[in-house]
From TrEMBL:
Family according to the record: Belongs to the MEGF family.
Ranges where the EMI domain occurs: 23-97
Subcellular location per the Swiss-Prot or TrEMBL entry: Cell membrane
Entry annotated with the keyword Membrane: yes
Annotated InterPro entries: EGF, EGF_PEAR1L-like, EMI_domain, LE_dom, MEGF10/SREC1/2-like
Membrane-crossing segments per the record: 770-799
Keyword Secreted set for record: no
Protein name as catalogued: Multiple epidermal growth factor-like domains protein 10
Membrane-topology descriptor: Single-pass membrane protein
Disulfide topology: C159-C168, C202-C211, C288-C297, C331-C340, C416-C425, C502-C511, C544-C553, C673-C682
Length: 901
């Protein structure tokens, strides 16, 4: 079978060109297939018939009959199939070439080869002719001149205004202009007419299409050709070009915005925005920072709101504070989590549980506060003693020590500093003594006094030092070096004479005279040469205007800085340029915002994101130039076209692999199979027993029938006979087959009934006849059983007993009466001796019970007679039990047992 399948596949894959077929794109292939045919076969079946029984009745019997039957079997066939050659598809009964990529502006002439319509080119005919070319395949060169455009289809020239002729090489005559010189000039006031567009060159002060109007806003001078330099919407005087600034601007050209904090006409109004809000320099409106709202941004967000204009809601728990600008929950100590809903684990505490408890000195860790110290200790880990001035639990008790004395953190006792004594350290040292507990003696020189605290000396005039053995330092002089030089402007003086040594920018005996204008430096010897509006500082030289640097302020700020001394750092993002004077950012296409840090919103692009994207089907739009990057399954400039049939994926570059007319998704290339097929590429038929979409429907055909993989129709290989057929049976040919009704086709097929000569039988009994015959048969059988038991069985037993050669011993017994009060005992009879005939009997002898009602006997002689003990008999009853043998005894055995009462 495997060889047949391989042979079938090879034949299917090798198309054979057939010249005899009229269409040259038709090919033949040989196909091997299975065809169901009807074949006869012999089989044995049981046939029911009736016969006489019990003289009066009819009985039903069966016999085996060999019959000829028919069944459907698959046979291997071959046939020639004519179909379109590879690369061609059937269209209106004609094999047409197929271009898998599609021909958008053309038609397919050969497999995957398009013939484009005039004006189109490219492999898919989806590209217009390049400028300057036209016609089929865009190979003809246009002859148009003077900027005329050329029709890509016919090559016809479309002249620009002011020209005419087939090649647009003839200029318009006087007083005419426009397209093919069809319009007449309408200029007034001596204006000259342009033969291209009919525009008039007006006299100074005039404008308009026919020079009948004065200059429009923004222009002035001859022919209104001079542009006003006014910016930001300022009006321009048409005569002299002076600017009249709009609200929010100032300067000669109205190009300088109002200073920070001012707005309106001539920047005369002061902004009232609060909380660092930005003020619109045009109308004074406030742009609030996150976390504030109100006309003047004077209101902070409520505790449960945050964000821009306080529009977002907070969800903080456990007393957490919601930050109004970010919405983050500022958890109290001891809590963490996005909403501060999680308590700190053991061993951690503080803000967001970020700290670990390392408590010392027997301190306890609190999840909110951290370590709770014992008496006398403090600090994060309770490893520090109380600071000076406190003692006790949590260092909450105040010491009574004075004069900076240290306090014992455990009991509050005072440790006096040098120079003091007493229980509170409130008594100073006596004269001539200093130090701890006032035990140290002073050592000052030159009649200087001693400091009781540290023993330092209070020096006499002109001296200083630890022992007052050094003269005053430079800049000071006099008693205890307490006098300072009289120099001005921060100038130091000689410690002995007080003469001043002036700093750059000053001169005079006390350095009180500044440098003259245009001079600076030491003794005012340097000359200022400042540029670009810089001022001269008498000390350091040129102080540059914002945007300039250098010794003489002749250099602009480098990239990334602006303002005075270029000290301000530009905040412009995404390669935006920064104005060196104002710090304003000029954004690149695709960005917006004050700092150019905000990307264009989805669906917009270009400078300041003012242009709308045209991309369709959720395609990505480049925020810089608006170019579309199509999603999977679409193509085109604006991604408005679905992939042609047979292609899928991004830019439709993937070829579909679906077989057997399976539908290919243009988005992911997945195959949706036709009914009857399955597999990743719909390459496999349904498994036997299944059919339909996704092979999900289970067939309901019997074992000798098979199911079609597409329709589910049952095709039976054989027919099962259910009724007898005779020469007189006229219904045989109309009997219904036993193949079940298919869940799909809802139809039956008829059996093929075959006649073989058999005895003709009567029709079956009716129900009443059957019941009567059954009753009569039961009565006859009952009478026969009664006759056998009444007459025949006793006779046989008697005859058997007389013929038996076994000697039955008499039972030796002693009869006696039982007490009358002992009753309700039963004695069951034993078994008869087995001789020649097999007869068993069991009967009740007396209402008494054997201790051993039955004892097996094995190879005993006649003389070995076992005895039975009887516990009791019914009062006044005497009986001899019968002898018996077991049914398994052989006929020759003489095993006997005796019973004794």
């Amino acid at each position: 079978m495997a060889l047949v399948v391989v042979h079938y596949l090879v034949l299917c894959l090798i198309p054979i060109s057939v010249n005899s077929i009229k269409n040259s794109h038709m090919c033949n292939r040989t196909e091997t297939y299975l065809e169901p045919v009807i074949r006869s076969h012999s089989y044995t079946t049981k046939v029911k018939y009736e016969t006489r029984c019990f003289l009066l009745f009819k009985c039903t019997k069966y016999r085996d009959v060999v019959r000829i039957g028919y069944r459907q079997v698959p046979e291997l066939r071959q046939r020639v199939i004519t179909e379109c050659c590879p690369g061609y598809g059937l269209s209106y009964s004609v094999c047409e070439p197929v271009c898998a990529m599609g021909c958008f502006r053309g038609h397919c002439i050969e497999p995957d080869t398009c013939s484009c319509y005039p004006g189109w080119q490219g492999k898919k005919c989806d590209e217009k002719c390049s400028p300057g070319y036209y016609g089929l395949n865009c190979i003809d060169e246009c002859s148009c001149k003077n900027g005329a455009s050329c029709s890509p289809v016919t090559g016809e020239c479309n002249c620009t205004d002011g020209w005419k002729g087939s090649s647009c090489d003839i200029p318009c005559a006087n007083d005419t202009y426009g397209h093919y010189c069809e319009n007449k000039c309408m200029c007034q006031n001596g204006a000259k007419c342009n033969n291209s567009d009919g525009s008039c060159v007006c006299s100074p002060g005039y404008t308009g299409e026919t020079c009948n109007e004065t200059c429009p806003a923004g222009y002035w001078g001859l022919n209104c050709s001079r542009n006003c330099s006014c910016k930001n919407g300022a009006a321009c005087d048409p005569i002299n070009g002076n600017c009249n600034c709009t609200a929010g601007w100032r300067g000669k050209l109205c190009d300088i915005p109002c200073s920070k904090g001012f707005y309106g006409d001539e920047c005369s109004q002061r902004c009232e925005c609060m909380n660092k809000a930005q003020c619109n320099h045009n109308n004074g409106s406030c742009i609030c920072e996150d976390g504030y709202t109100g006309i003047k941004c004077e209101e902070a967000c409520s505790s449960d709101t945050w964000g821009k204009n306080c529009a977002e809601s907070c969800d903080c728990k456990n007393g957490a504070k919601c930050l109004p600008d970010t919405g983050y929950c500022d958890c109290p100590s001891g809590w963490k989590g996005h909403n501060c809903e999680i308590q700190c684990e053991n061993g951690t505490y503080g803000y967001f549980c970020s700290k670990k408890c390392n408590c010392q000195n027997n301190a306890i860790c609190d999840k909110a506060e951290g370590c709770i110290c014992t008496d006398g200790f403090t600090g994060i880990t309770c490893n520090d003693t109380c600071s000076n001035g406190t003692w006790g639990v949590n260092c909450t008790k105040e010491c009574k020590c004075e004069n900076g004395a240290k306090c014992n953190p455990f009991n509050g006792s005072c440790i006096c500093p040098k120079g003091w004594q007493g229980d509170r350290c409130h008594i100073p040292c006596e004269t001539g003594f200093y130090g701890q507990d006032c035990t140290e003696k002073c050592d000052c020189q030159n009649d200087s006094s001693c400091n009781a605290t540290n023993g330092s000396c209070n020096c006499s005039e002109g001296f200083f030092g630890e022992k007052c053995d050094r003269v005053c330092l430079s800049g000071t002089w006099g008693y205890n070096c307490s006098n300072r030089c009289d120099c001005q402007n921060g100038i130091d003086c000689s410690p002995t004479t007080g003469i001043c040594d002036c700093k750059p920018g000053w001169r005079g005996t006390r350095c009180e005279i500044p440098c003259e204008n245009g001079t600076y430096g030491y003794k005012c010897q340097e000359m200022c040469e400042c540029k670009n509006g810089a001022t001269c500082d008498s000390s350091s030289g040129c102080v540059c205007s914002p945007g300039y640097v250098g010794k003489i302020c002749n250099e602009t700020c480098s990239s990334g800085s602006w303002g005075i001394n270029c000290s301000q750092i530009c905040n412009c993002k995404n390669n935006a340029s920064c104005d060196v004077f104002t710090g304003n950012c000029t954004c690149l296409p695709g960005w917006k915002g004050i700092d150019c840090g905000v990307p264009c919103n989805s669906g917009t692009f270009g400078e300041n994101c003012t242009k709308n994207c045209l991309c369709e089907h959720d395609s990505f739009c480049n925020s810089m130039d608006g170019a579309c990057q199509c999603t999977s399954g679409y193509f085109g400039k604006i991604c408005d076209q679905e992939c042609p049939k047979g292609l899928w994926g991004v830019d439709c570059i993937n070829r579909c692999e679906c077989q057997n007319n399976g539908y290919c998704s243009p988005f992911n290339g997945s195959c949706f199979c036709s009914p009857g097929f399955t597999g990743e590429h719909c390459e496999s038929k349904c498994q036997p027993g299944f059919f339909g979409n996704n092979c999900a429907i289970k067939c309901h055909c019997e074992s000798e029938c098979f199911c079609h993989h597409i329709t589910g129709k049952c095709n039976c290989n054989s027919k099962i006979e259910t009724l007898n057929c005779t020469t007189n049976d006229t219904n045989c040919g109309q009997q219904i087959c036993s193949c079940p009704i298919s869940a799909y086709n809802q139809s039956h097929e008829k059996c093929m009934c075959n006649y073989i000569d058999e005895p003709e039988t009567d029709h079956p009994f009716t129900l009443s006849k059957i019941l009567l015959a059954t009753l009569l048969l039961t009565l006859i059988i009952t009478a026969a059983v009664v006759f056998i038991l009444t007459f025949l069985l006793p006779f046989l037993l008697y005859f058997k007993k007389n013929k038996s050669n076994i000697t039955i011993k008499s039972s030796n017994f002693v009869g006696y009466n039982l007490p009358e009060n002992e009753k309700e005992y039963k004695l069951f009879g034993s078994k008869y001796v087995k001789r020649e005939l097999s007869i068993n009997n069991k009967e009740t002898i007396s209402k008494a019970t054997f201790e051993n009602p039955e004892v097996p006997l094995h190879q005993r002689s006649k003389d070995e007679i076992p005895e039975f003990n009887v516990s009791s008999l019914e009062s006044g009853v005497k009986s001899i039990p019968q002898l018996s043998s077991d049914d398994n005894f052989d006929a020759k055995d003489e095993n006997i047992f005796n019973t004794k009462f």
